[in-house]
Amino acid sequence: MTRIGSNAIGEQFDAPSRDEASPAVEAGSQAVPDAQSVPQVVAARPPERMAAGKIQCDACPVLCQISPGRLGACDRYGNVDGVLVRTDPVLLLSKPGAEAVASSLSGWDGALLNDAPVFVSGVASGTTYPDYKPAPFIVGSRAEGVDLVTVVTEGIFSYCSFKVKIDTDRYLGAEQSTVRHRGEAVGHVTTIEYGSQFLSLGGVHHLTGGSKREGRVSCELMMALGNGEAVDLEIDGGARLAVQAGRAPRIDGIEEQRMRVGCGSATIGIFAKQWFGHVDEVVVVDDHITGVLTEHQAGRCLDMPASGIRIRGRKSTPGRYFQVAGPGTGWGGTDIEDPLAIVEGWDPSVARPGLRLLMVSTTGEHAEWFELDEALRPVRAPMPGAVCKVVERIGENCEPALSTVLFVGGAGGSLRAGVTENPVLLTRSVKELLTRVSCGGAPAYVWPGGGITVMVDVARMPAGSFGSVPTPAIVAPIEFTMPRDVYAALGGHVGRIRTIADVLDRERHRVAPIDARNPWPLAAGPGSR
């Protein structure tokens, strides 16, 4: 079998010669072994029982045996005339403002004197499995007068998940409730964060800790979410959802429209002055903090007289009530359809006939106007135009409800070994902000603490960034960019550095413009363009 590397064109992967061995690492790192003791990487022996004409793929632990003209289980590697080939061309991202990469490259010989017009992303780059190999692409470039190196690979992530932010006040399910896809447990409900409900989906326990079907379904769900596809979810004891990155969520078949302007108390504070003179009382119904205008500090600062209203629930501070109703899909994320259900009565020594009452939700989607009759009973009446305008303004200040999907993954040993023989130095370099991490060219947030745990918005990554292998695990792009001297100091595979021109000349590739929301990955600062 021809042993080939993880690059897209099937170039033979030879062990580095002695003169290509990594230079000595600076203080604080481990010493590089003597060249005589460095093992030579050779082609793996094919299995004794493998049929003639097949080749073994070693891009992941599955080790598929692939027949001529066929693909492996991941649909990413194939047997082309006896050579293992990464079927998709590696994705290059073009620099903002470039009219056409082809024309901008004309006459460019790849010398580091010119700023690189393209960025080699990890999408379709290939893997480092079985983990000791240098990354498929280690690319030298120059940007803003600095010699840079970008180490590019596709990571095989078992330790990864997706955090999904769903903008809604509606009840989705109790915290820690199981989230299911096609009947299998794939995650759980986490916390509510000011108008948004969070889900944690995937993770190593669902991928490997349950049944084979649970692992397979979890992996399929994760890949679909990462690639911007719509997925259906069911929450035990809660709602049925349709979620897609960058799109409005559908909850029990109804598309969510608005993310609330604030809690009930905040809504009172924001619009108190605009209601002044047009109402005698306002109740903003909210599952978490229901606000009452005349009791609230905002009403007191406007010197509004008490209305005598008595609200069900647990009083927190003046004008702020908890637990006025159960959670649900009704007014303000509660289970009520009639807002008067949270009004226990009126103090006859304070309330008066004709008192004007507005009850409204935190999104303005629900609103009703009442006036007290002679028996101090609220009677529905037409809402005055001035009050309607304020209710409309509540809606105007509600942002569109969206589903946001964030990929979270831990860059473990295999990824770091593809960068350097001493992986802890890469971790330190990232934490010291000497090395920038991106995923498909999109900026990645690196969590504090140990290791390299990255988080990235999948909507800012190129289409089709995520794949999978049937171990099961997710395959995702990742890039480490740093100054060349930093790369040498951390014991990087300096002998493997290539120019972008060499990549363009020798590798099957495709070019796409970088997402306009993303900074240029080779720029000096995170906000540079």
What would you say about this model in short?
The protein is α+β, with helices and mostly antiparallel strands.
- Give the overall form: elongated
Radius of gyration: 30 Å
Any low-confidence stretches, pLDDT <50, length ≥5? 1-33
Estimated helix fraction: 10-25%
Q: Can you count the beta strands?
A: 34
Distance between the termini: 46 Å
Strand content: 25-35%
Mean pLDDT: 87
Structural class comes to alpha+beta
- Quick one: biggest sheet? 11 strands, antiparallel
The strands making up the biggest β-sheet line up spatially as: 16-15-14-13-10-11-12-9-26-30-29
Number of helices: 10
List strands and helices in order, with pairings.
Blueprint lengths: L54 E2 L8 E2 L10 E4 L2 E4 L3 E5 L6 H5 L12 E3 L16 E7 L2 E12 L2 E8 L10 E4 L2 E9 L3 E7 L1 H5 L3 H15 L4 E5 L4 E4 L6 E2 L2 E2 L8 H12 L5 E5 L4 E3 L4 H5 L7 E3 L2 E4 L2 E3 L20 E4 L9 E6 L5 E6 L5 E3 L4 H12 L6 E9 L1 H5 L5 H9 L4 E4 L2 E2 L1 E2 L5 E6 L9 E3 L3 E11 H6 L8 E2 H7 L2 E5 L16
Parallel strand pairs: 5-34, 7-33, 17-23
Antiparallel strand pairs: 1-2, 3-4, 5-6, 7-8, 8-32, 9-12, 9-26, 10-11, 10-13, 11-12, 13-14, 14-15, 15-16, 17-18, 18-21, 19-22, 20-21, 23-24, 24-25, 26-30, 27-28, 27-32, 29-30, 31-32
What does this protein structure show overall?
- The radius of gyration is 30 Å and the shape is elongated.
- It is built from 10 helices and 34 strands.
- The longest helix has 15 residues, at 212-226.
- The chain is 15% helix and 30% strand.
- The strands form 7 sheets. Strands 16-15-14-13-10-11-12-9-26-30-29 form an 11-stranded antiparallel β-sheet. Strands 7, 8, 27, 28, 31, 32 and 33 form a 7-stranded mixed β-sheet that branches.
- It is an alpha+beta fold.
